[in-house]
């Protein structure tokens, strides 16, 4: 192995990174390990992190508050794009990795580090997201990924490794789900979830809310206001926190998904995204008033590509930036308020208003109006249907002439 003297570690305090600090020190004798944790809204998971990192061998730890940057520079641009991976996943882990990795690269350069280490497995997407971001901000920095080289074969081995060294870890063999929590979502993978035939043990795993069956029998109403496609009224972090609580209480935002990972395999996970699910529903409803048909249809194509880029770790690329520029141009008039009814896991639109609405009741009404001449539709249909008419006459002519 290389003779690295100072290594910056992407640190969460979870099972993987808890054992990586001593592993680095054992395998790179004399090296200094500096832990960097990005606060993107994990809440209580950050408690005791400083003490734990130092106790397990880190010389220093940074706990960087990235929640505002995460919300404004990653969550809201993705929300405005309407990006959803494979129809369900609201990209909670995907767009949290670049903001964390960017700060890690900055600290590594400031500290004069020889390498950056992370705890991502060789089977997952996060290794790509971390490393592509590091390449964007510290292109010459060596990267250490213990999961690709160490002798540990799985999470049970990690628990044994930690126990042998007296390292406290936040899981047991029975609760050894792989989780990722931030302001936007909470993901669950592993154990019984690895078999898609198993119904998730929701009572055991849910943390942000309840199942629809346990939600109140009375609906809750909420109104979300937007300006240029961004939710307003409170600051972004507070809006998401408030909607997480409201959505969670009403059983909203629980997704069970078998997805296609970038590395080629399928994986199964359960995602809790209560506030994000509400915001996506509200934003999409508002766009039905504010976007013209051609823009809305093309934006759907952009949304799919945007989701793929985010999922695949390509946030810091010219294409993602160009797509964001297009999205921003579509959002100039996406402003107004959306009222939603939350009931047992469902989000029901209960009213939409916008000063930029393209909907005209005067034109759309079934009652008498003075602005739409229904007789105009005859000529429109004749021209619109001209290709159909021409083809039908051709087929009739060929048939009557007996041609093959």
C-alpha Rg, in Å? 26 Å
Mean pLDDT: 95
- Low-pLDDT regions: none
Content of β-strand: 15-25%
Largest sheet: 5 strands, parallel
CATH H-level superfamily title of the largest domain? Argininosuccinate synthetase, chain A, domain 2
Percentage of residues assigned to helices = 40-55%
Strand order of the largest sheet: 3-2-1-4-5
CATH architecture verdict of the largest domain: Alpha-Beta Complex
What is the molecular shape? elongated
Number of domains: 2
Question: Can you describe what's shown?
Answer:
With 404 residues, the protein is an alpha/beta fold. It contains 14 helices and 13 strands. A five-stranded parallel sheet has the order 3-2-1-4-5, sandwiched between helices. Helix 4 (96-111) crosses helix 5 (126-137). The protein is elongated and about 85 Å long. The chain starts with 5 loop residues before the first strand and ends with a helix.
Brief summary:
This protein is of the alpha/beta class. It has helices spanning 15-27, 49-55, 67-81, 96-111, 126-137, 155-164, 202-205, 236-249, 274-290, 293-311, 318-330, 361-364, 376-384, 386-401; strands at residues 6-10, 32-39, 60-65, 115-117, 143-144, 178-181, 186-189, 220-227, 230-231, 254-260, 266-272, 336-343, 346-353. Helix content is 42%, strand content 18%.
Pick out its properties.
elongated; five-stranded parallel sheet; alpha/beta; 404 residues; four-stranded antiparallel sheet; single chain; Rossmann fold; Argininosuccinate synthetase, chain A, domain 2; 2 domains
């Amino acid at each position: 192995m290389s003779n690295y003297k100072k290594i910056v570690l992407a640190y969460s305090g979870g099972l993987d990174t808890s054992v990586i600090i001593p592993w680095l020190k054992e395998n790179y004798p004399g090296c200094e390990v500096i832990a960097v944790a990005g606060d993107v809204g994990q809440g209580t998971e950050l408690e005791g992190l400083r003490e734990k990192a130092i106790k397990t061998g880190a010389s220093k730890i940074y706990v960087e508050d990235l929640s505002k940057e995460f919300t404004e520079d990653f969550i809201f641009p993705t929300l405005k794009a309407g990006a959803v991976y494979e129809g369900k996943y609201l990209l909670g882990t995907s767009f949290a990795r670049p903001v964390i990795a960017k700060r890690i690269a900055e600290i590594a350069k400031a500290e004069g580090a020889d390498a950056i280490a992370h705890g991502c497995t060789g089977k997952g997407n996060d290794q790509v997201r971390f490393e592509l971001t590091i390449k964007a901000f510290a292109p010459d920095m060596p990267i250490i990924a213990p999961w690709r080289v160490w002798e540990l074969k799985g999470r049970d081995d990690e628990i044994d490794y930690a126990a042998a060294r007296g390292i406290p870890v936040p899981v047991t063999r029975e609760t050894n789900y792989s989780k990722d929590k931030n302001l936007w979502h909470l993901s669950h993978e592993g154990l019984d979830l690895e078999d898609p035939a198993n119904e998730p043990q929701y009572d055991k795993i849910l943390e942000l809310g309840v199942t629809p069956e346990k939600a109140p029998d009375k609906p809750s109403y909420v109104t979300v206001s937007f300006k240029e496609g961004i939710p307003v009224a409170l600051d972004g972090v507070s809006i998401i926190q408030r909607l997480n609580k409201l959505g969670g209480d009403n059983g909203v935002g629980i997704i069970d998904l078998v997805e296609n990972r970038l590395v080629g395999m399928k994986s199964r996970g359960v995602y809790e995204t209560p506030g994000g699910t509400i915001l996506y529903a509200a934003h999409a409803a508002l766009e039905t008033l504010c976007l013209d048909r051609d823009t809305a249809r093309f934006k759907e194509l952009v949304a799919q590509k945007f989701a793929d880029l985010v999922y695949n770790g390509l946030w810091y690329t010219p294409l993602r930036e160009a797509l964001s520029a297009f999205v921003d141009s579509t959002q100039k008039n996406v402003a107004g308020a959306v009222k939603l009814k939350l009931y047992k896991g469902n989000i029901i639109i209960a009213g939409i208003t916008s000063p930029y609405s393209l909907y005209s009741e005067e034109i759309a009404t079934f009652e008498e109006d003075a602005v739409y001449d229904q007789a105009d539709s005859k000529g429109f249909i004749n021209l619109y249907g001209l290709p159909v008419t021409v083809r039908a006459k051709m087929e009739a002519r060929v048939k009557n002439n007996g041609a093959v």
